[in-house]
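From the pipeline queue, job 12 of 40. The input is one protein chain; the requested action is below.

Action: predict structure.
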Amino acid sequence: MFEILKKQGQIQNIALSEIFPNRFQPRRVFDENELFALGESIRENGLVQPISVRRIKGGFELIAGERRLRACKLIGREKIEAIVYDIGDEESAVWALIENLQRSDLSPFEEAEAMAKLISAWNVSSEEAAKRLGIASSTLSNKLRILKLEPEVRRVLIENNLTERHARELLRIPEGKERLFAAKFIAEKELNVPETVRYIDRLLEQKKPKRKPPKFVVKDLRLFINTFEHAVEVMNSAGLCAVSTVSENEENIIYSVTVPKEKAFRKTKSPAG
């Protein structure tokens, strides 16, 4: 197949030194072991699929095939088979982003960043971008939300292969040191998503301010005086002959209740000797 495409002028052997990386490449992390394995496969079997490039000033810009290009560099290849396309900046960016989104080994943050760049490149709303990508608008929104996490938190999640769900749960914690501490704890304890949900629930519960008992504000002293008067009435109905008086001086209002001792204490006869 390569020979046929070469004869048609669709494939060229291009020096690796002439190929520049794509500015819109979403992938930031490449597994060195996987690249070495891919390089050995290319050494043994040749390149199964050519990379895609476009002409730019001073050489070529990669469109798709970053892993293949890196693997060829690792095994010391000087040239690589490439299909050369005549396309502009926007089309090249979209192509590179979509090609990477169709792979399953992007980190959640690489995927989210690629989608954000696509929205910008297409110059459309997130709803329209979701339609073009074939996903629900809510799914796209959830993926983009994790970009609010701080770089330090992202690093912990990526290094420990934690998921998008882990990332979204961390967004429930207000930004700051608590969020980074939680990310490290989740990674260290290898918590799954349900365990992470329960852990963050406990953290948030601890941070809730304790409810203080409501303060009763006295707006009218007459409310209390009425209560006292009612108490006096009850005492009198029991035969205590209580008398209430109210007086005041420069600083205080004085409310007093007087009960005769002979009424307050019932005398009892001593038992017969």
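Job complete. Residues 2-88+95-105 form a domain with the Conserved hypothetical protein from pyrococcus furiosus pfu- 392566-001, ParB domain fold (CATH 3.90.1530.10).
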